Amino acid sequence: MKNIFYSLLAGIVALVVISGCKKDKTLGSTKVSAVSNLFLPEDAKYVKIASGASGSVAFEWEQARAEDNGLVLYEVAFDKEGGDFSKPLYSVPSDGNGLYNKLTLTYSDLNKIATLAGVKPQEAGKVKWTVMSSKGINVVPSAQTRIIEIERPAGFTDIPTELFLTGTATEGGDDLTKAVKFKQTAPGKFEIYTSLKAGSFHFADRGTGTPLTYSYDGTKLTEAGNTEFTGATKVEKIEVDFNVAAYKTTEVTAVGLWFAADNKIWFDLPYTSNGTWAADKQSIVFHQESWGRDERYKFRFTFKNADNTSSTQFYGSANSDNNAADANTAPSYYYMKPVNNSQYDYCFKFNHAFDNKTADIKIMFNNTAAEYTHSVTGN
């Protein structure tokens, strides 16, 4: 029995050795040839990326050969026009996880490459590309290179989904963790109500780590940099649109509570911080009508425009008429929407418990609620 066991053991060892030898032989050579021809895109190809456009560019090249007749892996490398690919700006495996002799690059990818090459929005710049072949090691660059010229869009191909305001001119200072968050109003569009003081500011796509940053260069929204703010502290509505690289500021000079029955502003709400206006211990006295007590109100914002003209916008309820608020009223009742300037329509109605009392009124145009909103509380 012992002899049989040792015979079996010797057989297993022999199989392992043979298998190992076969595996070593299968590995064979790791040598591959360089790609000898580049097919697409043609040399000096000009690609214009329109704002918000989707699209792609195909790269194709002649297959390389492996000494062991095995598979070859490909990687496409990009560098500045005068670069030598020793430290490429960007490299990416070909389609099929590196197996195919072609690559499909989206406009978004091309925009990234142009950005890395220092090309500014609405400008064109040249980058050089080539193909590296290998079997995972012993990478062989092609001797062939081509130029592709990329015109970046006025807007941004890679649009942030969040946006923050930071810098010495802002309420949170230049501490990124205290940056003030914008409200997204549509894909690529953001707005914020905030105060600015003398200093500089910029925008960031996140409030931690190393974010991508943007600024206004005096003409358009652009990457990196800072925007200077001078003069006295002001409350501003800032709007940015990454789809068209647009930037706009409008000064908010006053916010008042409009009482419909009196057809006038009862009182102004001073700005505090973080898109918030508040007025405490305000007298609330409904208007006596023949049919009862009128409790309707909304808010009026006054703006100073870029041409120094003044304009107003009312904010009220999404409903043209409402029931009076009470202790069980849902938070959504207080959501504020731009409304027309009619005296009585789209008004809120005070809780009757506040009649002939005082109340604290607060407007919150920030991200503390799902929508711009306000509150009325007793004191």
What does the secondary structure layout of this molecule look like, with pairings?
Layout: H1 2-27, E1 38-40, E2 45-48, E3 56-61, E4 73-80, E5 90-93, E6 102-106, H2 107-116, E7 124-134, E8 140-141, E9 146-151, E10 164-166, E11 180-181, E12 183-186, E13 189-196, E14 199-204, E15 213-216, E16 221-223, E17 227-229, E18 234-241, E19 246-259, E20 264-268, E21 276-284, E22 287-289, E23 292-294, E24 296-304, E25 310-316, E26 337-339, E27 348-349, E28 357-364, E29 373-378
Would you mind describing this structure in some detail?
- It is a single chain.
- The protein has 3 domains: 38-151, Immunoglobulin-like; 164-244; 252-378.
- It has 379 residues and is mostly beta strands.
- The chain contains 2 helices and 29 strands.
- The chain is elongated, with a radius of gyration of 33 Å.
- Strands 12, 13, 18, 19, 20, 24, 25, 26 and 27 form a 9-stranded antiparallel β-sheet that branches. Strands 2, 4, 5, 7, 8 and 9 form a 6-stranded mixed β-sheet that branches.
* End-to-end distance: 97 Å
Low-confidence stretches: 1-26
Radius of gyration: 33 Å
pLDDT average, as an integer? 90
The helix fraction, in percent, is: under 10%
Tell me the fraction of residues in β-strands, as a range. Answer: 35-45%
Structural class: mainly beta
Count of spatially separate domains: 3
Q: Compute the number of helices.
A: 2
How many extended strands? 29
How would you sum up the major sheet? 9 strands, antiparallel
**Dominant shape:** elongated
